[in-house]
Amino acid sequence: MTTVVDRMPDQHGVLLAYELDGNGGGRELDREAGLAPEGAGFRWLHLQSDTPASEEWMSALGLDEKVIEVLAAHETRPRCLSVGGGVLIVLRGVNTNPGADPEDMVSIRIWFTESAVVSARLKGRRLLSVEDVRLQIESRQGPTSTGEFIDRLVERMADRIGDVVDGIEEELTGFEERLAGDEDMKVVRRSLSDSRRQTAAIRRYLAPQRDALDALYRTKGVLNDDTAYALRAHTDRMTRYIEDLDLVRERMLVLQEELYNRMAEQQNARLYILSLVAAVFLPLSFLTGVFGMNVAGLPGTANPQAFFYLSVGMSVLAVVMVLLFWMKRWL
After folding, report:
1. Cα–Cα distance for residue pair 223/159, rounded to 1 Å
2. What is the CATH architecture assignment of 14-260?
3. pTM of the full predicted structure?
4. Which of 103, 165, 309, 312 has the most CB atoms less than 10 A away?
5. Segment 266-297, tens digit of pLDDT
């Protein structure tokens, strides 16, 4: 089981600082370290960008103002561009923090060159994919270049997104089975509405994330051919997830329409029965109303058998009306 280390940032907002040796291993640095590696490898700094001194620290590292602006932004959208002598990419991963919803996707911002990687996230917005890469470095199975670092991180993020998409598809299959059974329609409808909101929230970021990965794949100079090919595969995965969510959305619409149709059929059947009952009792109510008037001259008021005759007549009338409905195939 993966152990999550939620480290407290230093005064500059640095959460992690590593120097990787280019062979899969690395050593943890003092979090006051800069970006220039001592050997042939590269350095990775992971920041909490909303600490008070983080922007000054990033400026001291020599980062471009545009890079700092994106790394410290509170609201981001997946994108990729070349800026500040490196590549800046903003991605979104599923939220696996305790008590959080997966569709509340966590933003991670990364700026990298051939010799340095600077990643940033906001307070409380931890991403397990970053922890996965850290554990790979600790076990000396980490990335050997900055491009491979991005590839490893994107791969872990894509894996978790795929798990969520698969979970949504399984949940939808469960809804279809429940709808085929006798389960309460209201319960299914509420659950289906929640899943639709989750699907829409996740898909909102996947389309621009696919475009960002596609732009990263086309970036020249920083990525080697193997890394570019791997990133292209991740782009295709994002495209497949988007297509899966589009199909899920269509299935949900069909299922919701079927749900509404079945609820309407049940309601119409109940109203139909009430209408028939009202039709049977309408003439009977008329007779009881007429003979219940307290006026002189009503027939049978002096005959002790009048109530019996009236009851028999009303019963016969009710039976005749039921037979008439049956002959017209209304029953």
Report:
1. 22
2. 2-Layer Sandwich (3.30)
3. 0.77
4. 165
5. 888 888 888 888 888 888 888 887 777 777 77
